[in-house]
Amino acid sequence: MKHLLSLLALFLTIGATAQKKLEMTNIADTGKKVVLEENTRVKIRTSDMKKHIGELHFTADGKLLVDNAEIPLETITSIKKQSKSFGTLKTVILIVGVATMGAAAIVAAGGGEAAFLLFATGSGLSVSAGVLEAVNPNYTKRKWTYQLTE
């Protein structure tokens, strides 16, 4: 019986501690809401043109904490989810594309006929790394409002 009461008390305390969330609401007529919970990896740009990438945390006074920098809600210009594996994939594709274009330059200097094919392949890979950046939506201050909720 003692263990049962202990378990019940544990579940009640876990349920009572509400986790803060960042709720973003679309200003347009759709009213769509997106919620970012704590420990979500994000990229935040602020009004002073700084970029912060890291896990999202919240302070007691209503500010966001990303990459050990406190960010007030008023200074945010855009928020984007930024998963680590997806960022690594984009970087690898970009590096392979640039290396392929470098190989094309070396082949062209040697008089090889495959230089154009290598250059076109490398260009396509590099451009696709840039296109992958647009896969994750960017929640800008022009179209979204931000507020902290419990």
Question: How does this model look, in words?
Answer:
With 150 residues, this protein is an alpha+beta fold. It has helices spanning 2-16, 84-109, 115-132; strands at residues 21-26, 33-37, 41-46, 51-55, 57-58, 64-66, 69-71, 76-81, 138-140, 144-149. The strands form three sheets. It has a four-stranded antiparallel sheet with strand order 4-3-8-9, with no helix packed on it. Strands 2-1-10 form a three-stranded antiparallel sheet, with no helix packed on it. A hairpin with a 4-residue loop joins strand 3 (41-46) and strand 4 (51-55). It starts with a helix and ends with a strand. The relative contact order is 0.17.
Low-confidence segments, given as residue ranges, are: none
User: What summary fits the major beta sheet?
Assistant: 4 strands, antiparallel
Structural class: alpha+beta
Oligomer: single chain
Which series of helices and strands comes N to C? HEEEEEEEEHHEE
Give the termini separation: 33 Å
Report the count of strand segments. Answer: 10
Overall 3D shape: elongated
